[in-house]
């Protein structure tokens, strides 16, 4: 691995390359926050794909692509006189210090001198400094964010509207949990899941599309809640199932191509047999 000096030199070289491209490349010179935004979303999902596959080479590559966008937005901010990459780094570092009084507060064991908290309003640090477990840290985190200058004014206001719905539901529930709004016993959630499923089935039998849609949302929300309580990430779980379905369906399709029989001409029984073959191969 590289030394701190080598890392700093690499980051400086990266900024130099970006400065040169912004000046001399017609495409880079033309970019704005608005034009970059769709690409940023795409690059973020490509990184997420690499992380799911645990492909270290792809992760490294995609991290670079995401880093390019971060530095590019900072460069545009610098050109407008709003902020630069140093402001981005310093503000993020200040925020981390402010949100971790159990690490940076001067009363902690090993602290040699008081460490200032430059981000936001002053806190009553004694309320937060003894967090020792992940749960305590997360509870403190939400309370501290509400006290930040220019921070979130409501517990759920930090959940971006543009998040995919499944991830948003998980984040909403997780933030509510951090302030104590949660099931006392995780087993209790199953009663709610069954209740929502029953209500969905009732509306489906009535063929009321609008109410069925509402009940479907309630049911999915309750299942996501159950996953959270059992420390399972529903987005990761669903994506793993997506990939599994793709593998098995591709197996069926490849067989149909090999024998020259289109899927549309296959019976469901034939496709089920091939599906089970693919399933059996995964277990070997």
Describe this structure in words.
With 284 residues, this protein is mainly α. It contains twelve helices and no strands. Helix 3 packs antiparallel against helix 4 and helix 9 packs antiparallel against helix 10. The protein is extended and about 65 Å long. The chain starts with a helix and ends with a helix.
Distance N terminus to C terminus? 37 Å
Strand content: under 5%
Spans of at least 5 consecutive residues with low confidence: 107-117
Order of helices and strands: HHHHHHHHHHHH
What's the overall geometry? extended
Instruction: Enumerate how many helices there are, as a single number.
Output: 12
* Share of helical residues: 55-70%
Biggest sheet layout? none
Residue-averaged pLDDT = 85
Helix/strand/pairing class, anyone? Answer: mainly alpha
What is the gyration radius calculated from CA atoms? Answer: 25 Å
What is the gist of this entry?
This protein is an all-alpha fold and 284 residues long.
Mind sketching the topology for me?
Layout: H1 4-24, H2 26-30, H3 33-53, H4 56-79, H5 85-99, H6 101-104, H7 134-147, H8 165-177, H9 189-206, H10 209-229, H11 234-259, H12 268-283
Helix pairs in contact: 3-4, 8-10, 9-10, 11-12
Keywords:
single chain; about 280 residues; mainly alpha; about 70% helix; about 0% strand
């Amino acid at each position: 691995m590289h030394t701190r000096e080598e890392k700093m030199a690499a980051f400086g070289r990266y900024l130099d390359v970006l400065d040169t491209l912004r000046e001399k490349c017609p495409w880079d010179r033309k970019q704005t926050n608005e034009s970059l935004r769709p690409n940023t979303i795409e690059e973020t999902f490509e990184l997420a794909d690499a992380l799911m596959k645990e492909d270290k080479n792809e992760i490294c590559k995609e991290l670079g692509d995401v880093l390019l966008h971060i530095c590019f937005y900072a460069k545009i901010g610098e050109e407008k006189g709003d902020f630069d990459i140093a402001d981005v780094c310093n503000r993020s570092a200040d925020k981390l210090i402010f949100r971790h009084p159990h690490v940076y507060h001067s009363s902690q064991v090993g602290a040699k001198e008081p460490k200032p908290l430059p981000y936001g309003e002053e806190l009553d640090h004694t309320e937060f400094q003894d967090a020792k477990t992940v749960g305590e840290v997360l509870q403190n985190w939400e309370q501290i964010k509400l006290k930040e200058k220019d921070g979130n004014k409501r517990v759920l206001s930090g959940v971006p509207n543009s998040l995919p719905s499944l991830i948003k539901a998980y984040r909403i529930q997780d933030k509510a949990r951090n302030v104590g709004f949660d099931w006392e016993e995780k087993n209790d959630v199953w009663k709610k899941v069954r209740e929502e499923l029953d209500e969905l089935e009732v509306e489906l039998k009535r063929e009321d599309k609008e109410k069925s849609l509402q009940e479907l949302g309630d049911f999915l929300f309750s299942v996501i809640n159950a996953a959270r309580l059992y420390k399972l990430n529903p987005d990761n779980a669903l994506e793993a199932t997506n990939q599994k379905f793709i593998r098995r369906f591709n197996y069926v399709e490849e067989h149909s191509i090999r024998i020259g029989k289109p899927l549309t001409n296959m019976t469901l029984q034939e496709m089920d047999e091939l599906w089970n073959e693919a399933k059996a191969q995964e277990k070997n």
